[in-house]
TrEMBL record:
This is DNA polymerase kappa. Coiled coil: none annotated. It is found in: Nucleus. It catalyses: DNA(n) + a 2'-deoxyribonucleoside 5'-triphosphate = DNA(n+1) + diphosphate. The keyword Oxidoreductase does not apply. Residues 545-582 form the UBZ3-type domain. It comes from Panicum virgatum (Blackwell switchgrass).
Length: 649
């Protein structure tokens, strides 16, 4: 956004999106952020000098531990393709070269060419706003097959430098180049230059590279000389410290818009150095894990399994129960296929007004049969009725692998459960409620948690009980500032009602199973998602879940677990697509500005070209295209970087 008139961009965004559902959703998110900020401020105000000196010691101890574990022996390289989707489209259609280009639709842009970025057009921006900012903006529909193809070509190159490279999305990867540097007696800088040239040679595309002693910093470095550039941070403690101190906190992976706002508005923190200065407050207010780990998806284990269904909003209860039964069956299939049982069942509901509610129940024993799932799910749903819904989902967490303990007998536990009597719940806290009387039947020792979108969450740590059987699991307790942590581990179990969701609204009635990965999807001519499952997935367009917490089930886009806000932005893209479809068919609710923008815009491809593109997408694109050499890329050396930073501070 350098050199962009940010004020003008903000004004246009506001004027153009006012009144749309997207805008309403953004407002809800903002309101929730404000509430969280207020809550944090209140928490902050309760901290005494004693608390702070305690947390200061905790922070210092932690810093000492980290210092002791500082490892400067490795050389990590992070690579990130430049304007990836847009660059691929330009490679496929050279007439787009030099034009301001947006990949996406009137609803949402996935990325923009650097020419378009000069006008303030960027990823996760609705297309009609992009048109207003940049009247000549050219649109191309995303073609995920193409991006996957080019991504695979880049991965072949990565392989030759680090066979265990970590790809975190289609266009990004981390390579440990320590061995290559030693074996070939070359520097990290030389590897970076060579690798960029090899990528260009193989794909015709440019990328930017960062080299540093660890992955997190390497990622920051790859962004410094973008596009088509590289930045090398030497394996030297002083250089690393100076570099990190100057960084704005937003540069740290996992610190997105919301966290940045919180840190700035509550604690006045803008740079990493200020983070260190306020370490006691950070320790007091934030959980350790939300400070940003570098754990990779590979190391994670499945925490939950589930499915959800989007449909045309209905208040017909028999229809809703029918859908619930289908969901229970699908959940049973997925659990049994993986040999899993679970203890906590979460029902997710999205009302016709896009309010998201989650209701969770924890059973005494592990369950995975349709009958058992349906008993609990029905009770949870009944308690919410009457209501009009557009989405329902069921998710099982607290999983147990049957292979680990064959003695667990679910049915027996359920029998005991229903035979038990007079087991009343005794719970405090507004986010926990009993369903004992829902059907006039005694439900025995279970815990139930509820959570609504748009509401200020209760900050109390939840529940107490005098009942030994009763169990309120940690992830059900809504402590706003530990939200990152909760979502990190239990992505879809208790997705944040507003921020963590943002899906649905599509017209297609089917089920997506999280256990099944849809490898690629693409938009057809009318903007419907057509699935091209590589596996026998019954997943269909219109819903989105993050498979294993980081792979988009709609397009296969990967974003690592810590990148919660980035994932949210990506979800918003699909969400806006579905809203767009809805608003297009609903003539009573047109978005005037969008229509206006559509008229103003030159949108490619033409019908003829679309056909050609369709044909093209089924054939393998030629990897080697003539493009400007990557050798002439940007190289601001480290000294110049520090000089520039000092000026900006
Ligand atoms: N993407 C998306 N939704 C987003 C952001 C990105 O679908 N909210 C897609 C389109 C991008 C690709 O992922 O081309 C890679 O994302 P990057 O953030 O790396 O952005 P670009 O590669 O487009 O640009 P840059 O040169 O800044 O890396
Ligand atoms: Mg990129």
């Amino acid at each position: 956004m350098e050199g962009v008139d940010k004020e003008k961009v903000q004004k246009v965004i506001y004027e153009m999106s006012k009144g749309s559902k997207y805008f309403e959703n953004e407002q809800r998110k903002e309101a929730l952020t404000k509430q969280k900020i207020e809550h944090l401020r209140a928490q902050c105000a309760t901290l005494t000098d004693n608390d702070l000196s305690h947390f200061q010691k905790v922070a210092e101890r932690k810093m000492l531990e980290l210092e002791a574990s500082r490892d400067l022996s490795k050389i990590w390289l992070h690579t990130d393709m430049d304007a990836f989707y847009a660059a691929v489209e330009t490679l496929e259609d050279p007439s787009l070269k030099g034009k301001p280009l947006a990949v996406g639709s009137m609803s949402m842009i996935t990325t923009a060419s650097y020419e378009a970025r000069k006008f303030g057009v960027r990823a996760a921006m609705p297309g009609f706003i992009g048109c207003k900012l940049c009247p000549g903006l050219v649109f191309v529909r995303p073609n995920f097959e193409r991006y996957t193809h080019y991504s695979e070509l880049t991965r072949k190159v990565f392989q030759s430098y680090d066979p265990s490279f970590i790809a975190t999305s289609l266009d990004e990867a981390y390579l440990n180049i320590t061995s290559v540097c030693i074996e070939r007696s070359i520097t990290g800088e030389e590897v970076a230059t060579e690798l960029r040239a090899a990528i260009h040679q193989e794909t015709g595309l440019t990328c930017s590279v960062g080299v540093a002693p660890n992955r997190m910093i390497a990622k920051v470095c790859s962004d410094i000389n973008k596009p088509n550039g590289q930045f090398i941070l030497p394996n030297d403690r002083e250089a690393v410290l100076t570099f990190v101190y100057t960084l704005p906190i937003r540069k740290i992976g996992g610190i997105g818009k919301v966290t940045e706002q919180k840190l700035r508005q509550v604690l006045g923190i803008s740079t990493c150095q200020e983070m260190l200065q306020k370490a006691a407050f950070l320790c007091a207010l934030f959980s350790e894990c939300s400070a940003g780990g570098t754990e990779t998806p590979k190391q994670r284990q499945r925490k939950s399994i589930g499915c959800e269904r989007t449909f045309i909003a209905t208040d017909d209860s028999s229809l809703l129960f029918e859908k619930l039964a289908n969901l229970a069956e699908n959940l049973m299939d997925d659990l049994q296929k993986e040999g899993l049982k679970g203890k906590t069942l979460t029902l997710k509901l999205k009302t016709a007004d896009f309010e998201v509610r989650t209701r969770a129940v924890t059973t005494r024993g592990y369950i995975n049969s349709k009958e058992d799932i349906l008993i609990y799910a029905t009770k949870l749903l009944k308690a919410e009725m009457p209501l009009s819904l557009r989405l329902m989902g069921l998710r099982m967490s607290q999983l147990h692998d049957e292979k680990d303990d064959s003695s667990t007998s679910t049915q027996k536990t359920i029998d005991i459960f229903f035979r038990s009597s007079n087991s009343n719940l005794n719970v405090n806290g507004t986010n926990v409620q009993s369903i004992t009387n829902i059907s006039g039947q005694d439900n025995g020792p279970i815990s139930v948690t509820t959570e609504d979108g748009y509401l200020v969450p209760d900050s109390g740590t939840g529940a107490s009980t005098d009942q030994q059987d009763f169990f309120v699991h940690d992830e059900s307790i809504f402590i706003p500032e530990q939200r990152n942590l909760v979502n990190y581990n239990n992505e879809a179990v208790l997705s944040n009602p507003v921020i963590g969701d943002g899906l649905g609204g599509a017209k297609i009635d089917d089920v997506t199973h999280t256990a099944k990965v849809m490898n690629s999807e693409k938009l057809d001519d009318v903007g419907q998602f057509i699935s091209h499952e590589a596996t026998a997935s019954s997943g269909k367009p219109g819903q989105q879940l993050w498979i294993d917490g980081y792979i988009c089930s709609i397009c296969g886009f990967e974003l690592p677990p810590g990148f919660e806000e980035e994932r949210q932005e990506h979800s918003d893209f699909h969400f806006a697509e579905s809203l767009q479809q809805e608003e297009t068919v609903d003539s009573k609710r047109p978005i005037c500005s969008e229509r206006l923008a559509e008229k103003q815009c030159s949108t490619t491809p033409s019908p003829k070209k679309k056909l050609a593109e369709k044909q093209c997408s089924t054939t393998t694109p030629s990897p080697k295209k003539k493009l400007k050499s990557s050798k002439g890329g940007k190289h601001i050396p480290i000294d110049a970087f520090f000089a520039k930073c000092k000026k900006n501070l």
